[in-house]
Amino acid sequence: MHIASRGSPPEQWARSAQREGGPPVTQDKRTLNDLERELSLFARHYLSTRQARAGQRLDRSAYLLLTRLELSGSMSLGQLAEAFRLDISTINRQVGALLKQGFVERFPDPDGGMARRFRPTDEGLRQLAADRDRSREGVGTVVAEWPQDELATFVDLLTRFNIDIEGVEGNPWPRERDTHG
Q1: CB neighbours of residue 37 within 10 Å
Q2: Where are the membrane-spanning stretches (predicted)?
Q3: CA–CA–CA angle 65, 139, 44 (5° rounding)
Q4: 28-40 pLDDT, tens per residue?
């Protein structure tokens, strides 16, 4: 399989941009066009394969919420809404679904007041670990033939990309490297 290098995308991409009335595509713009397209495909492939994996019990929002609570510890609805950049009603519905499944528990905020905090239950953490294992297996299938150094470079670059997004948004995501290996 031939993969176009960043410096020479297929000619039809450049012609397509020119047909749309835009100026000729420069090298930097071509690279950004390639990156945007590949990120779109990455999101599509990752989400579609994750949803199709047999045995996975958590939907995307549950997986992300449990992951965030696992890394950050307990959080209030307001903190979760801020972390995910969602309105409180959306987070409330998502957390409510996790409560009904027994994957999170609510408890009084130790700082007092009316606020409640949420943390994953043992069952929630077990399910997260099981789904994470299935997800890792699926990703592992895709990169099974990659040399270890290329895989490590990809992980480093993807991590840097995500950290840079978080910096632009002013919304860092907690992460620990290789805590689930």
Answers
A1: 12
A2: none
A3: 70
A4: 899 999 999 999 9
- Supply the mean pLDDT for the chain: 84
The maximal CA–CA distance of the chain, rounded, in angstroms, is: 63
- What are the distances in angstroms from CA 1 to CA 40, 42, 144? 20, 18, 16
Please state the domain extents for the chain: 60-125
Q: Looking at the domain 60-125, which fold is it? A: Arc Repressor Mutant, subunit A (1.10.10)
- The amino acid sitting at 106 is R
Which tens digits make up the pLDDT trace of 60-99? 899 999 999 999 999 999 999 999 999 999 999 999 999 9
The secondary element (H helix, E strand) that includes residue 89 is helix 88-101
User: Who has greater pLDDT, 8 or 134?
Assistant: 134
d(CA 8, CA 31): 9
> Higher pLDDT residue, 114 or 139?
139
pLDDT at residue number 89: 96
Distance (Å, whole) CA 168 – CA 159: 14
Closest-CA residue to 81 (of 118, 127, 44): 118
62: Cα separation from own chain's centroid: 12
CA nearest to 61, candidates 87, 90, 89: 90
Distance of CA 43 to CAs 10, 39, 101, 153, Å?
22, 6, 27, 19
